[in-house]
Amino acid sequence: FSIETDLRRAIEKEELELHYQPIMDLKSGRVNGFEALARWIHPEQGFISPVDFIPVAEESGLIVPLGRWAMYQAAMTIADWDSQIAFHNMGSAPKIGHADYKISVNLSAIQILRDDVVGAVRDSIFSAGVDGHRLMLELTESAFIDDPDGTLKLLNRLKSENISLAMDDFGTGYSNLAVLQKLPIDVLKIDRSFVTDMGQDKEKNAIVSTILSLAKALDMQTTAEGIETSNIGCALKLLGCTFGQGYHYAKPLKSDEAFQFLSNSF
Length: 266
Ligand code: G
Ligand code: G
Ligand code: MN
Ligand code: NA
Prior knowledge:
The chain is of the alpha/beta class and 266 residues long. The protein has twelve helices and nine strands. It comes from Sphingorhabdus lutea.
């Protein structure tokens, strides 16, 4: 069996689905949004992890249709959940959900080089009829290695479409602070390798505190990834981290479970 051949078919036949991991506003305790994570249920092989198929998609160029599919799916999900919430809240039953959550989609560095990302994003938000700021794109520092000027231009064009932007896995890559200062990034996502055991590890705790101060100086919000205990969540809230994501709140959820989670967060 070949991942590449089967992945081409999987994208056409809709064997892929997006799961959604809640991202919490640490101050209010409400859901701020969800990170969309691709899942592949292969008819014979069963579950295949994105850790295995995303690299193949990147090498083969299939990341372009896969990335477009993910953006479109995420935008349609926002439209679907919005209309379910609006419909429910017209009635007299207790209100559910809230109107301004975001869904974020991971963007691979190769997509930036090979696809017209602005065109793809425009198609998605236009088809779904949702405002650009509801869709967040997560990119990693590696996107700046091959073409820093092109990537900066792309981010500025996305921002002029009102798209929300996050820097993913921050702290693990090539952190050029001079470049970071120029980027129209809304959120810095602190990599989970620093967060998960910051309780037992003074150095990791210091790294997280430093990233939080840096983000504050640059007027960016922050998301800590990989929060697995309530103690770490509380500590991060006290340190001024804006958002939190991790198994302590929820793992990535199927679409209907994610909608339930949102409904319960009024
Ligand atoms: O849940 P987790 O095992 O899902 O994800 C593993 C990795 O796969 C993460 O680094 C995540 O960023 C990446 N990933 C998941 N879905 C997508 C996607 O739709 N596009 C890209 N480019 N990466 C994804
Ligand atoms: O690389 P990126 O940050 O896009 O990928 C997120 C990855 O982290 C996904 O594989 C997701 O399933 C995983 N993840 C999310 N929350 C936790 C957590 O609390 N602990 C661990 N170990 N992994 C997590
Ligand atoms: Mn991510
Ligand atoms: Na990450």
